[in-house]
Write a structure and sequence with these properties.
Layout lengths: L5 E5 L9 E2 L5 E3 L18 E6 L5 H14 L10 E7 L4 H11 L6 E12 L6 E9 L1 H11 L18 E6 L2 H12 L5 E5 L1 E7 L4 E8 L6
Antiparallel strand pairs: 1-2, 1-3, 4-5, 4-10, 6-7, 6-9, 7-8, 10-11
């Protein structure tokens, strides 16, 4: 596997707010911003608000993910396996953000997904390479959820220069060979990780620590 991955992406009309994977569309080189904190974005404030989803996955799969992350992911001691849905933003009003999330996801049921492979992705502005678990099914629904969140008070926070690809990060490194070898080893396992996104967590992040501010279940989620 190459250290830089070419994704076939559908570039939507201007203003549609998201980029999704498809076989018929033009080819775009996906690169991500440099790792400046555990969410891969430079922070312009001392404490940033972020929205993530901690997926429900079988215990055995969770344990395996954590065993890989413990050896390869700089985020391991900061945050549990997660999908980031709203990246560090400049909003400083926690209640407003929580109310926006709660109103936006009203009526949205839990999102099942299936992961069958890892993909290596080159950082956009640095030499870092990330290893992502990317859903094969459920991807489009997660993208739609992301797009819905980036409306209203979050509309100005959307970075349209970077395509959103739902993922769980399990490794990052400056060594392409290390990531290539790890990706080949993992994909040889023939992954089959089924899970569900059933809630969104609003957290604050100061560059070192995560603080949970609110957990909002998707409709009909069982807790």
């Amino acid at each position: 596997m190459n250290s830089i991955v070419l994704w076939v992406l559908k570039i939507p009309p201007s203003g549609s707010g998201h980029t999704s994977k498809t076989k018929e569309s033009q080819t775009v080189l996906v690169k991500l911003p440099p790792i400046q904190n555990c969410f891969g974005y430079q922070m312009e404030v001392n404490v940033a608000l972020v929205v993530v989803s901690y997926p429900r996955i079988p215990k055995a799969d969770y344990s395996w993910i954590q065993s890989v992350r413990a050896q390869n992911d700089a985020q391991f001691k900061i945050i549990a396996p997660h999908f980031t849905l709203v990246f560090p933003c400049r909003l400083n009003n926690q209640p407003d953000l929580i109310n926006h999330i709660r109103a936006t996801i009203k009526g949205i049921p839990p999102i099942p997904f299936l992961i069958k492979k890892v993909v290596a992705v080159k950082d956009r502005l640095s030499e870092n390479i990330h290893l992502f678990l990317i859903p094969e099914s459920g991807l489009d629904d997660i993208v739609k959820l992301h797009d819905m969140l980036y409306t209203g008070i979050l509309a100005s926070e959307l970075n349209r220069d970077v395509p959103f690809i739902p993922h769980i990060t399990i490794a990052n490194s400056l060594d392409p060979a290390r990531i290539q070898n790890l990706a080949a080893e993992i994909n040889a396992r023939q992954l089959f990780i089924k899970g569900t996104l059933d809630s969104l967590a609003v957290v604050s992040f100061d560059g070192k620590l995560i603080d949970l501010l609110g957990n909002i279940p998707l409709d009909n989620a069982q807790h």
